[in-house]
């Protein structure tokens, strides 16, 4: 495995930086695979922080299945640990722009690292799922103007969402939107702008979603609203609703269980196999 860390900035003069950690399969003459898809992972954390449980363990799970993986520690509402001055961090649109720059960085090293640039896929959990879904809804029209990057650079092949934050309406996870919008958190126009059931368009790629029926933090209606919007725009979608489990399950087994021990849910553990089967078909 090749382990690599890259500094990612939304713009060249941005004072905020994100960290991109790449987990890459090494090329071997003994293995007939020339290029591999890559999964770019955005952990959850309510836009307050990025969860360790939804970062490296997820990357290693995809790596074990034969994919390249990368984790983006994007800008969140809390002060950056690297910012000793304690300057306030802007989340929107900075985090989306960091996703764009991370994709550009992956493309830049694709030939050397044997990455299939036609199979760059985003994966996000909770608020991280909101981030990658927001990216997927805006890569074609909004982000080229924000970043100066071309549509060809920004294009992604697929979108994977785990218990996603989607709506700012009745079923919202309010803390995520407070952290995302900061001083604009009560602005109806801004809330509507980041409520993603209204932002789906024909440029969103094929999508894989999973959620639990009993999620008490981010209600399952978030996934249902997004899936319905995808259906209305004829975006091919695979949706799994599991009958049990709370929020933030990650791999739902011992590899990502917290000290409180609430994240082991056997019925949900199959999601990684379902996701990898979906990736193989993509």
Folded structure, characterized:
There is one protein chain. The chain has helices at residues 56-64, 94-108, 110-113, 127-138, 143-147, 151-154, 174-181, 188-193, 221-232, 271-281; strands spanning 2-8, 18-24, 36-42, 68-73, 115-125, 158-162, 207-212, 237-242. The protein has 282 residues and is of the alpha/beta class. It has one domain (2-11, 18-25, 33-281): Rossmann fold (3-Layer(aba) Sandwich). It has an eight-stranded mixed β-sheet, sandwiched between helices. Helix 2 (94-108) crosses helix 4.
Highest CATH level, the class: Alpha Beta
What helical percentage do the residues reach? 25-40%
The separation of the N and C termini measures 24 Å
Could you say which overall geometry the principal axes of the C-alpha atoms support?
A: globular
Estimate the mean pLDDT confidence.
95
Major beta-sheet overview: 8 strands, mixed
- Uncertain residue ranges: 79-85
Rg, nearest Å: 18 Å
Spatial strand sequence of the major β-sheet: 1-2-4-3-5-6-7-8
Q: What percent strand?
A: 15-25%
- Secondary-structure element sequence? EEEHEHHEHHHEHHEHEH
How many strand units?
8
CATH topology: Rossmann fold
Treating each run of at least 4 consecutive H or I residues as one helix, how many helices? 10
The CATH H-level homologous superfamily: Alpha/Beta hydrolase fold, catalytic domain
Number of domains: 1
């Amino acid at each position: 495995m090749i382990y690599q860390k890259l500094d990612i900035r939304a713009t060249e003069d941005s004072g905020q930086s994100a960290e991109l950690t790449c987990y890459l399969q090494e090329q071997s003459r003994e293995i007939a695979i020339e290029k591999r898809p890559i999964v770019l992972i955005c952990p959850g954390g309510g836009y307050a922080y990025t969860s360790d449980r939804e970062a490296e363990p997820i990357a290693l799970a995809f790596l074990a299945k034969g994919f390249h993986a990368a984790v983006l520690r994007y800008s969140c509402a809390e002060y950056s640990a690297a910012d000793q001055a304690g300057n306030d961090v802007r989340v929107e649109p900075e985090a989306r722009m960091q996703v764009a720059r991370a994709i550009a960085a992956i493309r830049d090293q694709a030939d050397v690292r044997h990455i299939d640039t036609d199979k760059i896929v985003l994966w996000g959990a909770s608020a991280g799922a909101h981030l990658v879904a927001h990216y997927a809804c805006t890569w074609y029209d909004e982000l080229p103007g924000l970043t100066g990057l071309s549509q060809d650079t920004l294009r992604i092949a697929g979108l994977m969402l785990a218990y996603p934050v989607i709506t700012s309406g009745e079923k919202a996870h309010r803390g995520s939107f407070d952290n995302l919008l900061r001083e604009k958190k009560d602005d109806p126009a801004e809330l509507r702008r980041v409520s993603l059931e209204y932002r789906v368009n024909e440029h969103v790629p094929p999508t894989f979603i999973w959620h639990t029926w009993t999620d008490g933090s981010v209600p399952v209606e978030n996934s249902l609203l997004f899936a319905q919007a995808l259906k209305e725009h004829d975006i091919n979608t695979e949706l799994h609703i599991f009958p049990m489990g709370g929020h933030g399950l990650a791999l739902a087994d011992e590899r990502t269980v917290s000290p409180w021990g609430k994240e082991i849910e056997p019925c949900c553990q199959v999601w990684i196999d379902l996701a990898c089967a979906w990736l193989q078909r993509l």
